[in-house]
Amino acid sequence: MNKLLIKGATIINEGERSLRDIYIEGEFIKKIAEELEFASDVKIINAKGLIAIPGMIDELNNFVVVQKKPFFGICVGMQLLANNSLENGNHNGLGWISGTIKKLPSKQLKLPHMGWNSVNLVRGNFKIKPKETDYYFVHSYYFDCNNRENILAKTNYGISFPSIINKENIYGLQFHPEKSSDQGLDIIKSFIEL
Question: What is the pLDDT of residues 27-40, one digit of tens each?
Fold first, then answer.
């Protein structure tokens, strides 16, 4: 695989993930990025034009909503985009894409939903370029999206749920593109090129 030279990607360690996970994702993204930086300081984020993984909530509204910088939320990062989450209580989200995080129905299905599953495109005109194929999932909750126009793709696991959402410059993926082989790498690459 040829290395695509892309400058300026920043992975943000929001403190809830292990440094090992961040490093593994960094190594994956290094396949397509010339420069890769790990940020834990808000000042570093303000100097960049791209956020690859969510974090630093106190600065994100200005960066993403006001300045319209591209934002890419993966798994829990996608779930943070909702108005609220019902996981272990009722908690506020960022509210950037209208919806609620709810538990997947578990009758006759194992939770978490873990493994490869199909992603079915429901809207065209993608700025990111997902393929209609299988991606790797690990989750027990899903994004119940209030506006159909924000749903780019769906997946079925007991119910049909949004697996890719979008509003303007904001993208969320329920699956893990960094663990989804070349098709996942292609999505990350198309986001970085925005």
Answer: 545 444 445 555 55
